[in-house]
Amino acid sequence: MKKTLTAVLISFLVLACQEKETNFTLTGKVDGLRKGTLYLQRVKDSFVIDLDSIHVRGEESFSLKTNLKEPEILFVYLDNGVGENSDNIVEIFAEPGTQNFKTDLNEFSYNAKVEGSTNHKLLQDYFAVIKKFNDERLDIVEASFKAYQDQNEEESKAIQKKFDQLLKRKYLYTVNFAINNKEYEVAPYIMITEAFDANVKYLDTVYNSLPKPIKKSRYGKTFKNLIKERKQLSKLEEKK
Asked: Residue 58 contacts by C-beta under 8 Å, 6 or more apart in sequence?
């Protein structure tokens, strides 16, 4: 009997400790959602890990919780029984505290709005400009395909030059954005995801501008390792 009571008490204590460990809450609403499951997820070592989930049955509002050591990218995934697609997943730059998520069922990803995270706001600002670069890139790809069909070598060379200039502009914008927002984890994050193959001198410039707390962050450490690997690769290529 005593062993049973002890086991029950330990279970309650474990549950209590687990509840105290959550320092991040995502509250939200999905207009039009009547039935489905919402997941809060993290990607680690190429594996998707479910941090929390809630089964929606008639209620459009929800709350998901987890524990964060530092700001990081998480994902909100909706399983509404119609199969997986890119519109069922929303990337959020989560920070300890409370954030609010709002969208609708028909355009779950496209209409998603997240408030309460400085890193997320900065990331959205960055992507708003990057979208213009990507749109311009699509135009260049289309022009390149036409030049190839027409067997116009001179035009192909001119288009390639435009593409190289566009890529350089994108990298320079990313570098400047990272330096201007070096106090936030979004700075190393965009460098490792959007400018990982930029000139090493650009990577060094950004990394050296980061304050110590950001260098020690998850993305700061990944950024440092990226630079190290790029430099090692350059040395190997020089020896060839």
From this structure: 34, 35
Mind listing the domains of the chain with CATH numbers? 2-116 (2.60.40.1120), 120-239 (no CATH)
Torsion region of 32: left, alpha or beta (phi above 0 gives left; psi -120 to 50 gives alpha): left
pLDDT digits (tens, 9 = 90+) for 91-117: 999 999 999 999 999 999 999 999 999
Which phi and psi (to 5°) does residue 98 adopt? -120, 130
Task: With beta carbons less than 8 A apart as the criterion, state whether 41 and 77 touch.
Answer: yes
* 0.70 exceeded by pTM: yes
> How far apart, in Å, are the Cα atoms of 49 and each of 22, 154, 205?
16, 50, 34
Residue 27: name the closest of 89, 93, 116, 110 by CA.
116
Per-residue pLDDT tens digits for 180-216:
999 999 999 999 999 999 999 999 999 999 999 999 9
Q: How many CB atoms lie within 10 A of CB 148?
A: 13
Locate all alpha helices (DSSP H) within 81-152, ordered by sequence.
118-149
Which of 139, 123, 105 is closest to 28 using CA atoms? 105
Q: Which residues are CB-contacts of 62 (< 8 A; sequence separation ≥ 6)?
A: 27, 28, 29, 30, 38, 54, 56
Picking from 165, 156, 158, 178, the residue whose alpha carbon sits closest to that of residue 136 is 165
CA gap 214, 207 in Å, rounded? 9
Contact (CB, 8 A) for 185 and 72: yes
